[in-house]
């Protein structure tokens, strides 16, 4: 869901690289609905997937943790009563006052968006008046909420790591990817609050991350590298068709993300009420998911059963679907669940994964069919992460294959990256203590270079290796000297020269 902005092709993204516009995919004007009208807006809970039947079978998402990245939340709405929702903290502090962003509020203007998103995951199905209310797809999942505050003012905030524990690296001030395989230090806490929140969620141990605020032009490469390494799915909304012209950075542009578009009860894509336009789509779209004509918990003016529309609500529904699969098949990874989903789209039944287009991706998500398929036999690999430049998804529309340019930069139509060279360079810093660059281009030890593993050269060789090599050389020299001294002792004993200093 996006208030401003349009989707960008990978080529247009380059032109937008100097601009960062933060927004969320907000719906058109919401409409409060009466009890008798609400069942039609709960079509996703019966027609698309029978929530009640699954819950009777105990498939509720229990034991799975889903992190939601959004503006703010009102945990006091009736639909969230009894839900396992933990507000983890904010990544944004006002640079002028030092006050953290407001991320918990009963004011609908502040928190309706985030509250509606969470209700798609764990909503009870009962509104304040006792009638039908917003219903969550995974009511027993644990939800961690990371707030960034008002998305419109996010560019003025100072970043903070919201859940940093003693001994943790400060994620707001650690490292940041540059161009190609360059990795920089980040002592001044440059970056985007939404991406930082996602990094914190991954570090904290979330299984799935759901993002419905789209911002942070280049920062999501870092998020997806870490998600890929930790086996975490990052599900994200995409720009809605009613967005204004503008440049937007966001997670849906990145390799390995799970971007979703919104459809209504007839399977039709969300369109602009004014023009009928369905937007520009997404080159790496994963699935089409319910997101149009749903029952929410309020709009910006008041709380109460409300019609909501937008891919912001598709993201948590898809995230919840993955949680159901992971719970139903113990030991299954989120990536294996994704493998099953790309093979069961459309009418269902197992089939080859085929990417359709920028509006449907791999097709209509069909969790009813996915839940019948044990994912444990599939590779524990993210099917949405392109790892080979020869992958057909890298080919341009004219058929030209993807290429690796100078500096290890991939030219791949699928997304803006990150690709294996960036992934490997980043992991070398985090796992092996490789050096990073300063803004001046100097090589320095990173905050990830632990004791005994600090680096001392531009190649990233750990210092302890050089110490060991040096010590070995010294020992060999001393042995050689001892042999020489032993053989020349009479002459050396009568001279005033130091050992080894004779002629």
What is this structure, in a nutshell?
The protein has 503 residues and is α/β, with parallel strands linked by helices. It contains twelve helices and 22 strands.
Structure notes:
The protein has about 500 residues and is α/β, with parallel strands linked by helices. It is about 25% helix and about 15% strand. The protein has helices at about 10-15, 40, 50-55, 110-120, 195-205, 220-230, 310-330, 335-340, 365-370, 420-430, 465-485, 490-495, and strands at about 25, 30, 65-70, 85-90, 90-95, 125, 130-135, 140-145, 155-160, 175, 185, 210, 215, 235, 260-265, 285-290, 295-300, 305-310, 405, 410, 435, 445. A seven-stranded parallel β-sheet has the order 4-8-3-12-14-15-16, sandwiched between helices. It has a three-stranded antiparallel β-sheet with strand order 2-18-17. α4 runs parallel beside α7 (about 310-330) and α5 (about 195-205) runs parallel beside α6 (about 220-230). The longest helix is centred in the last third of the chain and has 25 residues, at about 465-485. It starts with 9 loop residues before the first helix and ends in a 10-residue tail after the last helix. Residues about 1-25, about 25-30, about 245-250 and about 450-503 have low confidence and may be disordered.
């Amino acid at each position: 869901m996006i208030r401003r902005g349009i989707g960008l092709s990978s080529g247009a993204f380059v032109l937008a690289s100097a601009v960062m516009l933060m927004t969320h995919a907000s719906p058109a004007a919401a409409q409060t609905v009466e009890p008798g009208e609400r069942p039609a807006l709960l079509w996703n809970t019966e027609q698309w997937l029978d929530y009640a039947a699954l819950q009777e079978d105990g498939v509720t998402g229990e034991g799975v943790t889903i992190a939601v990245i959004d503006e703010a939340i009102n945990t006091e709405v009736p639909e969230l009563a009894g839900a396992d929702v933990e507000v983890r903290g904010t990544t944004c502090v006002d640079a002028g006052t030092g006050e953290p962003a407001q991320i918990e509020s009963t004011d609908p203007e502040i928190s309706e968006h985030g509250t509606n998103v969470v209700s798609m995951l764990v909503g009870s199905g009962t509104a304040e008046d006792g009638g039908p209310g917003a219903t969550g797809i995974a009511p027993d999942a644990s939800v961690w909420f990371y707030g960034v505050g008002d998305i419109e003012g996010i560019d003025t905030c100072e970043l903070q790591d919201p859940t940093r524990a003693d001994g943790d690296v400060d994620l707001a001030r650690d490292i940041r990817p540059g161009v190609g395989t360059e990795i920089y230090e980040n002592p001044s806490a440059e970056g985007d609050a939404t991406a930082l929140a996602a990094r914190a969620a991954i570090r904290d141990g979330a299984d799935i991350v759901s993002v419905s605020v789209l911002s942070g032009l280049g920062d999501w490469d870092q998020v997806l590298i870490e998600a890929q390494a930790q086996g975490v799915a990052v599900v994200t909304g995409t720009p809605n068709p009613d967005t204004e012209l503008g440049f937007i950075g966001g997670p849906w542009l990145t390799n390995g993300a799970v971007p979703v578009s919104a459809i209504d009860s007839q399977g039709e894509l969300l369109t602009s009420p004014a023009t009928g336009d369905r937007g520009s789509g997404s080159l790496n779209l994963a699935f089409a998911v319910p997101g149009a004509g749903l029952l929410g918990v309020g709009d910006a003016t008041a709380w109460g059963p409300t019609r909501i529309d937008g891919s912001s609500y598709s993201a948590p529904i898809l995230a919840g679907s993955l949680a159901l699969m992971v719970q139903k098949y113990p030991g299954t990874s989120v990536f294996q669940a994704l493998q099953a989903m790309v093979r069961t789209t459309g009418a269902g039944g197992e089939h080859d994964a085929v990417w359709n287009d920028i509006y449907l991706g791999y097709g209509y998500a069909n969790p009813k069919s996915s839940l019948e398929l044990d994912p444990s036999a599939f590779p524990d690999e993210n099917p949405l992460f392109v790892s080979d430049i020869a992958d057909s998804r890298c080919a341009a529309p004219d058929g030209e294959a993807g290429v690796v340019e100078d500096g290890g930069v991939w030219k791949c139509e699928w997304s803006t990256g990150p690709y294996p060279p960036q992934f490997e360079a980043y992991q070398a810093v985090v796992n092996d203590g490789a050096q990073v660059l300063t803004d001046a281009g100097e090589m320095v030890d990173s905050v990830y270079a632990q004791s005994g593993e600090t680096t001392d050269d531009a190649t990233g060789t750990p210092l302890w290796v050089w110490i060991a090599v040096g010590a070995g050389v010294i020992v060999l020299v001393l042995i050689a000297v001892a042999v020489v001294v032993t053989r020349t002792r009479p002459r050396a004993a009568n001279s005033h020269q130091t050992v080894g200093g004779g002629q």
